[in-house]
Amino acid sequence: MTYSRRQFGKLAATSLPIAAAALSHPRLLFAAEKPNSKVNGVQIGVITPYSYHNLSNDAASLLTMMVRDGINATEIQSPPVEEWAGGPKMPGFGGPRPAGAPGAGMNGPPPGPRPKPTPEQLAAQKARAEVMTKWRLSAPMAKFEEFGKWYKDAGVTIYGFKLQLTMDSPDAEYDYAFNVTKALGANQLTMEMPDDMPALTAKIGKFAEKHKVMVGYHAHTQALPTTWDEAMSQSPYNGINLDIGHYTAAGNHDALAFIKKNHAKITSMHLKDRKFPENGGSNMPWGQGDTPIREALQLMKKEGYDFPATIELEYSPSEGSDSEKEISKCLAYAKAALA
Question: Which fold is adopted by the domain 35-338?
Fold first, then answer.
């Protein structure tokens, strides 16, 4: 965080959790300048903690890495935020995702379909969801406001909060998701495109209208040019969390035309480089696949589109590298494209 020593002393006296987190990462305390990844009007961000895979996924470590990497904006997933706010730690989040594993999304053989969960796994998921719901319905919003201020003071804006809602979620949990989004300072709630649409997207859209917060639905290789049409027709607050890598790997050759047509409803756009299915569909280091990342960024610059472009690292780092180093390479690629 870019505090003077006098400011930090005042901060320590008024906000012990923030001060403790900063002390554990002293490089954040007296940085010469804040990070800046907005290039020629285009905001480049990163989805966390997903992109920093196989590294520490706690909120303080993520902030340290983003500041160190010069990234000033993020779409953040719920686990590190909720754990920091005192929520139960969910097992199995942020662990290794080996290349070629089903659903892993790394380079090598394209990921296959996720295996259907066993009855035991479904029961465990239900039990975890019940624990989380109980905690969420009593969580104080002040903690999330504090979290958003902590990140913002360090120079990192949270523009998206990712949390999955289901038809089984109580109405109060829908309100919780939108209230946390606003408390963090974000302008969009993001989630995976639900399997049980249109009923779920219709319900989410009503809550989005209530809270005046956009929802961006993220699709994988099921994405077609019409995938979001029904959800968008249900509510002016239902939008597109476009992933141009997945869109390309789904066999669509019209990514730039899709962006032009739907730019007003794109809440944010994930960046990754994948090949067309006829070329294997694999995730690749940027510039080696078929996804028009450079052209999409240039289009955003030319047209003045104000939605963020989000680095989502999915290819495997080469030997001697790691995900943080690769994220820095992706940021450099984006900056060169926007120069």
Answer: TIM Barrel (3.20.20)
